[in-house]
Input
Amino acid sequence: MKKYHVFGLGNALVDTEIQVSDQDLAHLGIEKGVMTLVDEDRQQFLIENLQDHLTLSNRACGGSGANTVISLTQFGGKGYMACKVADDENGQFYLQDLIDNGVDHSGNDQLNAGITGKCLVMVTPDAERTMNSFLGIGETLAPEDIDSRAIAESEYVYIEGYLVTSDTGRAAAIKARKTAQAAGTKVAMSLSDPGIVEYFKAGLEEIIGDGIDLLFCNKQEALSWCGTNSLDKAIEQLQKTAAQFAITLGSEGAIVFDGFSLHRAAAQPITAVDTNGAGDMFAGAYLYGITHGKSCMEAATFANRAASAVVGKYGPRLHSAEYNGLKLL
Output
């Protein structure tokens, strides 16, 4: 029995979520439905121009990897998060929020001066989320920030694809994958965002190397990764990338490959109000399921239930009582 079910690796971002219209996005020159990296000045400009908009959820420690590991721990798993924050108010808040959610982390008392990363999450009436992220000091996450012992003590390493945008972050992800493979720890990864696949595919291929154990992606990411418009062809090609994978299909559920067979897990009916965090929640619930004795199909069914719950409310995570109501059967 290892100490951790999942060792997560990702950008540390403090999330602020607001309600906007399609017209707001067009007026401010924001590409809808994807994550865009911005500098601090651009992010501050957007905040100032949207300051009268409704804030939808409380400030929270975020980033895709953190959301996934937090969901795992809230369901009852044990998680560790490797990330980088600055010695500022947001950094202290971020680390405390991880602790409050039961996640061990790589932060320490010797934090460096700088600015902790921030993400402005804009939600339109159709429930689509659009993110503008300033990585701050998180952009300097590097191989030396990886705790090899914690990886060896984990069942899975989970890498968020967003790390590919930083040279040192990509190097950290490659080290984590290699360290895990040498230690007999399985490697899972998310492709994260269609834009990441489109613009950083070569870097993602470096992170994946000769292949990983488990890949998470949505349909658009899968098609882009495989360079095809056919989901059937993408499914065939993904088997060269990962021993197992899960493709989320929104309201159509998910397709999972368990290494031998394909399975289709039906979605849970829900009226979506905010898709922010849906993929992160799916990955966290899925990882919780497969590290607690469930089959890939059982884990995917549970993950669909969890993802449906989070898109039915604002914010990328649930309250503790809501996690309790979704306990794995």
Remarks:
- The first helix runs from residue 22 to 27.
- Residues 47 and 110 are 30 Å apart (CA to CA).
